[in-house]
Write a structure and sequence with these properties.
By secondary structure, the protein is mainly α. Helix content is 48%, strand content 0%. The protein is built from three helices and no strands. The chain is globular, with a radius of gyration of 11 Å.
């Protein structure tokens, strides 16, 4: 498993501890009832801390799934 993916999975498991680990990579705002505005803020703060970079405030609305956040991290070469 690639490093960014495993690190992001840890962030998701921290914010959504009730989700089975096998479903974290499929999480999005439509299929995860627990994913509300507060958990979004918490998740984005954890991602920023984990990857040492600020997420673009203008992109936050587009970052509504595990995959979209992972792609954002990878395309911006966030460490």
């Amino acid at each position: 498993m690639d490093d960014a993916r495993s690190r992001l999975l840890r962030c998701f498991s921290t914010v959504f501890p009730e989700l089975p680990s096998g479903t974290l990579a499929n999480a999005n705002t439509a299929n995860t009832a627990e994913w509300d505005s507060l958990s979004s803020v918490t998740l984005f703060a954890l991602v920023e801390e984990e990857f040492g970079a600020e997420l673009d405030v203008n992109a936050l609305g587009e970052l509504s799934s595990f995959d979209s956040i992972l792609e954002y991290i990878q395309t911006r070469k966030v460490s």
